[in-house]
Amino acid sequence: MKSVFLKSIALTLTVTLTSGFAMAQQQTVSKASPQMEAVKVATKQMIDQGFGAKFDGSTDPFHLRQIIEMAQEYLAIEPNVEITPVVMGGIEGELQTPQGARDDAILIYIHGGGMICGNAKASRGYASALAGESKFPVYTLTYRLAPEHKFPAGLDDCFAFYKAVISKHPGKPVFLLGESAGAYYTLVTAMKARDNGVKMPAAIFPYSPLIDLSGALNRRRAATHDFTITEEGMKWMGDLYCQPEDQKNPYASPYYDDLHGMPPTFLAWDQSETLAADSEEVVKKLLEQGTECYFKAYPDCFHAFALTGRGTPESYEVMRNTINFIEAHINK
């Protein structure tokens, strides 16, 4: 029964992706597109049926992990993209290599999932689409998850993987991308590189990042509109991910870092998501530091909607602008 339901949802999303592709040409939208509304309906249906991700603290984290990874198995994988298992810095992952791949840059995509869900295999849908659209090779990784492995285990894995990639590809610019928890890891991996004298990413792309596990940020303005993450869910994730005494550590909550010395940064988020305040705070800090920062808040989407890829005008705009930003920073 689960399999039939998930396949039907995957078909809904695939039809949306196909019909939305021709229209998704970097449009500026003032409200959610019909394609976005269709994806939101499908996503809400998955959540209501118990097959989608809702981080509100009401679900056993291991059950949540299971249903998310099961759902992600049905996402389409881009054709003409070769997937190769890799081990980088002792961390398992995959390399997505598109046909006719470019050799002037490397991408690392770090999956989200509240620091408790996901792996490289479950990242194939978005990572292969990004590789196919951009023609850049894309690495993904399987970092350790909470609650079995608390902070800083996941960060240590991401940093080790990043260092191994830049060592394997000397002289090539490496770009870091991620959504939600992956956006958090994108930020803190760059911070670790900054603080340890390691070559910095050429640019970073934290879509809908979470930057505070301590409860210091006021997220109430948008929290009532988010059907995927609640304020209670944020506290739940924070307690699963790290000990209370670590929640103000800047590597656990980048809110407590001034974000000095960061690379060029591209952010995209939904105006009505619980974590909108996190993105706004990152932009504020980066602009105060004089860091190059491109950002856009989209109306009436959903948390981490960028993963919809080609499926909506909004997410396709994010994907194309991401690629344009990468191309603009390859030789910087």
Write the layout of secondary structure elements.
Blueprint: H1 2-21, H2 34-48, H3 61-72, E1 81-88, E2 91-98, E3 106-110, H4 124-134, E4 138-141, H5 153-168, E5 174-179, H6 181-195, E6 203-207, H7 220-223, H8 231-241, E7 265-270, H9 276-288, E8 293-298, H10 313-329
Helix pairs in contact: 1-2, 5-6
> What is the helix content?
40-55%
Can you summarize the main beta sheet?
6 strands, mixed
Arithmetic mean pLDDT:
88
Output the structural class: alpha/beta
Task: Give the CATH superfamily.
Answer: Alpha/Beta hydrolase fold, catalytic domain
Q: How much β-strand is present in the residues? A: 5-15%
Outline the low-pLDDT stretches.
Answer: 1-29
For the record, give the distance between the C-alpha atoms at the N and C termini, rounded to a whole number. 52 Å
Order of helices and strands: HHHEEEHEHEHEHHEHEH
User: Total number of helical segments?
Assistant: 10
Examine the coordinates and then state which fold CATH places here, giving the name of the CATH topology.
Rossmann fold
- CATH architect. name: 3-Layer(aba) Sandwich
Number of domains: 1
Round the Cα radius of gyration to an integer and report it: 18 Å
Taking strands numbered 1, 2, ... along the chain, how are they ordered across the largest sheet? 1-2-4-3-5-6
Please give the CATH class: Alpha Beta
- Tally of strands: 8
What overall form do the CA principal axes indicate?
globular
